[in-house]
Amino acid sequence: MSVRYGVVGWTPAKRWYDAVLLGAIALYLVGYTELAPMLVPESRALDGQSLRIKAFGSAAFLLLTFALAIGPLARLDRRFLPLLYNRRHLGVMTFALALAHALEVLGWHFAFSPTPPLVAALSSEPGLGTWPGTPFVPFGILALLILFALAATSHDFWLNFLTPPVWKALHLGIYLAYAAAVAHQVFGYFLAAANPGFVGVTVASAGLLLGLHLAAGLRGRRAPILGAEWVRAAAAADIPEGGAVVVEVAAGEPVAIFRNEGQLSAVSNLCAHQNGPLGEGRVVDGCITCPWHGFQYRLADGCAPAPYTEKLATYRLRVEGGEVFLDVRACPPGTYQQPVPA
Amino acid sequence: MQTSLAEAIIAAAMGYGAVGLAIGAAFLVFGIGRLDGGAHGAYAFRPLLLPGLALLWPYVVWRWSGGAAPGFAGQRRHRAAHRWAWIGLAVLLPALFLTALSLRTPVGDAPVRIAAP
Ligand code: HEM
Ligand code: FES
């Protein structure tokens, strides 16, 4: 928020989140390097470093898949919302795991030659068609570079410094990174089929992600309302106390209609921070609280409480016979609207 | 890739990064407070920015020397961009799997004896 920067905007929830996440990653890595060797026959046993390469690489990929799955999961089922709060740290940890993977690779496959490891890694790619054949390391390098750029610009400072549209465009790079990571795996791996289990994991992860986004996208298209200035937006009874319903408006931003202490207020559904879906958040201490990073706004005028300065567009509401009507013309951000009892 | 080309790429990347680190460090000490009010009196978070500053140093130089921040485009455009990104992935990922499958050399076939002993 527009207040002095810290290293991390810590909250108790974020500490728990990070602790659980780090614990899960540690378990996975230890499980992979300690338990996996017991499952494979002696003849196919791997040395510790090869195991670590695989453990770090697969952990990075699974974490990236998880990070990209949270958005649609939370849209499909509100119980996943708490996972969204701290998604930024997932990205940074994904980069750390991918970097560990790459460093292990450099220290293993390219360690025993007079050529410096980095030079060797770039120059020793086999030609297309010979096994392992298809160049797959460049895809890994591309993915790692993108993950680095995103992790390096994840602090809130960057959102202001680059401005939100540029920052968001840059962070769309996560999709390219995902595609590159998949290419890295299928070309390196599929072809060799030395680890059929992980081929299945890669395909299943990508399929799951695409399916989730399709399902969430179809759901988001519900209730398009067209035309006039005043539209019937919802049945008052459908708006939960302390929560909201989101209304898609034909022209303009989606609108979130909140109920707090029996009164209704309508604001833009897009958080002023990074367009988080406010309607999926809740009212905490009398303020709408964004599910993504916890920015808060007062219900009646859409203003963040002092010392913050963010403002949301507000909307006029009317209630007649248990139906909520919405004026789809947004009022300037910060305009006071008397909450409507319903 | 030829060794000489690989060496040139790595040298260029190192040079770029070294210039970026120097500019980034100077920016953290002298420039940031002027450009961003949120950084006034806040120091602990600054080293975190260094990798990003080293990566994007041409933009840092541009802003530091008084260049304007890029203008604001609507929020809807961004939501549409996400939708297109997913549609792109829905095409690209299956295509990657199919390409890999078609390139795949069969492994694990039973060994065939080519001549009787
Ligand atoms: C500079 C960047 C990278 C390099 C040089 C690199 C290199 C490699 C190499 C050489 C292998 C084969 C390892 C072996 O079988 O011994 C491999 C496998 C793999 N890489 Fe990477 N990689 C990079 C980045 C990434 C990234 C960013 C991800 C994921 C987000 C990733 C995920 C994987 C996975 C999942 C495997 C297969 C692991 C297994 O054998 O089960 N890599 N990589
Ligand atoms: S708090 Fe970050 S998007 Fe709302």
UniProtKB/TrEMBL annotation, chain A:
It is a multi-pass membrane protein. Keywords: 2Fe-2S, Iron, Iron-sulfur, Membrane, Metal-binding, Transmembrane, Transmembrane helix. Residues 231-326 form the Rieske domain. It comes from the Bacteria. Its main location: membrane. The keyword Nucleotide-binding does not apply. The keyword Iron applies. Gene3D superfamilies: Rieske [2Fe-2S] iron-sulphur domain. InterPro entries: Fe3_Rdtase_TM_dom, Rieske_2Fe-2S, Rieske_2Fe-2S_sf. One of its GO terms (molecular function) is metal ion binding. This is Rieske 2Fe-2S domain-containing protein. It comes from Plastoroseomonas arctica. The lineage of its organism: Bacteria, Pseudomonadati, Pseudomonadota, Alphaproteobacteria, Acetobacterales.
